[in-house]
């Protein structure tokens, strides 16, 4: 006999209470969703979720999908067993876990989310009735319902992971990903063998990039076009005889790219604007296998920095954000630093902060800074005077700290 056949429906009165509660749950307050995300993303063994923006975005989509799936099912059929949620959001989680070489332990996060959901649902239940018997039945039925739903959903995702893993471990992609992982881990794989498996020359200068999208409906073709674009603006696909770029499918919505040479940052930024759902983090450039590895790690650093700051920038390279990445490793401390150093300048008009940035970049030469901004020198001086009024300490007494804080601000807000 199946599990559904053993499920005992609640009394008519409690069915109505569940329906009323579910109608509230399908429109959860923002703080509920934030608490749910925090619980699942900070669960043990889930460091990969907290550090990877694509995984984190997938987890958030999955949380919302699960909550709304259970609530909507109980609006339609209150108190009946809810089938497993194995929709697009959950398939996406399975795909991302497998393609990063992770296993089912990441699904433990659903247990942490279950505890939060049950606590919030209990609050709803206490607001629905004061009758002790009704409340007892309501809590018993709904707690069993939530637990069964989570169990069934985890089982469904685990089965999807098994299917994804079987598909992934066959074909050339698996070989490329395995080889790249060995190189990144510093394993003693012979260079000639690695080159043969990758179809990519490991001698010479390399620059790595991470291409990804956090959108739930990401155009995978755009990700591939962006990966190719990195090579194009590097000269790496200029024609016959040029070294081939290397692209590895690191996740459903993530590509790892290596090219010989160095991408032209401005060209990349301009041409990537035609692919608005895609983001690109470019690493440093380096020689040989060590450069191959170091550049990739630096690209990941850039990706995580953009994510930490919720930065609107679509393209960023390690050489332009290295200082900001270091300063913002602890986002809370970085925010305190910016507020302490900039004071009211933090929220000033963009032309004021840009005037200060240009002035510092021009080595405090007002004429050169005005020329960079295409404004009259007197206009620049007025803006600098306004900045001094807003700063806790005059710019001349604190140039280095102000410049650093403004860099953090620029990458955080896109100004």
TrEMBL record:
Alphabetized InterPro entries for the sequence: CdaR-like_regulators, CdaR_GGDEF, PucR_C-HTH_dom, PucR_C-HTH_sf
Domain annotation CdaR GGDEF-like: ranges: 191-305
Database matches in Pfam families: GGDEF_2, HTH_30
Query: Residue ranges of the PucR C-terminal helix-turn-helix domain?
Result: 354-407
- In which domain of life is the source organism classified? Bacteria
Family membership noted in the UniProt record: Belongs to the CdaR family.
This chain's protein is named PucR family transcriptional regulator
Organism, by scientific name, is Streptacidiphilus fuscans
List the top taxonomic levels of the source: Bacteria, Bacillati, Actinomycetota, Actinomycetes, Kitasatosporales
């Amino acid at each position: 006999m199946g599990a559904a056949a053993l499920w005992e429906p609640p009394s008519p009165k409690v069915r109505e209470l569940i329906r009323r509660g579910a109608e509230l749950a399908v429109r959860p307050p923002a703080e509920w969703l934030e608490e749910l995300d925090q619980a699942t993303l900070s669960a043990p063994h889930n460091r990969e979720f907290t550090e990877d923006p694509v995984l984190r975005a997938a987890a958030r989509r999955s949380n919302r999908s699960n909550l709304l799936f259970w609530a909507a099912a109980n609006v339609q059929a209150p108190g009946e067993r809810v089938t497993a949620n194995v929709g697009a959001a959950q398939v996406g989680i399975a795909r991302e876990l497998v393609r990063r070489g992770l296993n089912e332990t990441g699904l433990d996060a659903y247990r942490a989310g279950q505890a939060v959901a049950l606590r919030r649902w209990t609050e709803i239940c206490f607001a629905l009735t004061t009758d002790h018997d009704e409340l007892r039945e309501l809590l018993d039925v709904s707690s069993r319902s939530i637990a069964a739903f989570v169990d069934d959903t985890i089982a469904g995702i685990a089965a999807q992971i098994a299917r994804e893993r079987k598909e992934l471990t066959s074909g050339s992609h698996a070989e490329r990903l395995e080889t790249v992982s060995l190189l990144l881990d510093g394993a003693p794989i012979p260079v000639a063998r690695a080159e043969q498996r990758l179809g990519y020359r490991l001698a010479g200068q390399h620059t790595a990039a991470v291409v990804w999208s956090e959108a739930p409906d990401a155009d995978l073709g755009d990700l591939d076009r962006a990966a190719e674009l990195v090579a194009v603006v590097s000269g790496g696909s200029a024609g016959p005889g040029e070294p081939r770029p290397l692209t590895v499918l690191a996740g459903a919505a993530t590509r790892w790219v290596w090219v010989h040479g160095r991408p032209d940052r401005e060209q990349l930024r301009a041409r990537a604007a035609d692919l608005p759902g895609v983001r690109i983090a470019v690493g440093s450039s380096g020689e040989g296998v060590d450069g191959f590895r170091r550049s990739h790690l630096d690209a990941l650093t850039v990706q995580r920095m953009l994510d930490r700051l919720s930065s609107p920038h679509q393209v960023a390279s390690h050489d332009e954000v290295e200082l900001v990445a270091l300063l913002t490793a602890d986002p809370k401390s970085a925010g305190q630093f910016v507020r302490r150093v900039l004071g009211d300048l933090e929220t000033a008009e963009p032309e004021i902060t840009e005037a200060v940035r240009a002035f510092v970049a021009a080595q405090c030469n007002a004429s050169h800074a005005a020329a960079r901004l295409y404004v009259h020198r007197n206009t620049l001086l007025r803006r600098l005077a306004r900045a001094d009024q807003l700063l806790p300490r005059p710019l001349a007494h604190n140039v280095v700290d102000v410049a650093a804080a403004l860099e953090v601000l620029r990458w955080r807000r896109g100004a």
